[in-house]
Specification:
This protein has about 230 residues and is of the alpha+beta class. The chain has helices spanning about 20-25, 65-75, 120-125, 135-140, 160-170, 175-200, 215-225; strands spanning about 5-10, 40-45, 55-60, 80-95, 100-115, 130-135, 205-210. The radius of gyration is 19 Å and the shape is elongated.
Length: about 230
């Protein structure tokens, strides 16, 4: 299964009284998909993840705004709760069947952690957390991008025929250049969003991380540095 990438955000003045207001401020900065705009799912949990959710709302027929979503969540305001919101944003994705890049809606999940939820898990994962998508959309496959690319594996080392075909395509300089370009554009989309979040929410700090990269932030900085 492909690894995913995340952002953890900690804010100033976060409390039971302010957390949903701050969450709304963060939600208003999300660069929503042009094709699939609006927030499409709301899940509210209390105490910890083992408990049955208090609320599970499928909003795909409504696609609510941030303000409308928080109005629904406010009825369940409590410091021991977690609020999960789902939507989509647009990122560049390689279509292997067509052999071309397309900007497509990708799943985006955002969570707000009350400070008493799950034993104070916010301290490790943030008052707010975003699952921003597959890690490779920002780091590339097989070490092909960045200054370390010289040691990248060739098609013969691939474990799957589709991977071998992809590596063969990327062995062509013009294809690799476009791969680098599209990945940098995905990174820029993420970093532009973080700058907007810093302006809208009283953030103390944020951290970019992923399931596969030991230092995700350094990896994307490396890719941005190569032109």
């Amino acid at each position: 299964m492909a690894n995913r990438a995340y952002v953890s955000l900690w804010s100033k003045g976060f409390s039971e009284a302010t957390m949903l207001e701050q969450f709304q401020q963060l939600l208003t900065t999300v660069p929503l998909s042009a094709e699939r705009p609006g927030f499409t799912e709301l899940v509210i949990r209390a105490v910890d993840p083992t408990e049955t959710p208090l609320v599970e709302r499928d909003l795909r027929g409504k696609a609510l705004s941030a303000a409308e979503l928080i109005e629904l969540a406010a009825e369940y305001l409590h410091a021991d709760s977690e609020y999960e919101v789902r939507t989509h944003w647009d990122l560049w994705v390689y279509d292997a069947e067509r052999g071309r890049w397309q900007r497509r809606p990708q799943r985006l999940a955002l969570l707000c952690h009350g400070e008493e939820y799950d034993g104070g898990i916010y301290a490790d994962v943030g008052h707010f957390q975003a699952d921003v998508g597959f890690e490779h959309l920002f780091t590339g496959h097989a070490g092909l991008l960045g200054w370390r690319a010289a040691g990248s594996p060739g098609p013969g080392t691939a474990a799957h025929p589709a991977e071998a075909e992809f590596l063969a395509r990327m062995s062509q300089p013009e294809n690799l250049r476009e791969y680098h370009l599209r990945t940098r554009e995905n990174i820029k989309e993420l970093m532009d969003w973080m700058r907007a979040a810093e302006e809208a929410v009283p953030l103390e700090r944020y951290r970019l991380w992923s399931e596969g990269e030991e230092n995700f932030e350094s990896r994307i900085d490396e890719i941005l540095a190569v032109h």
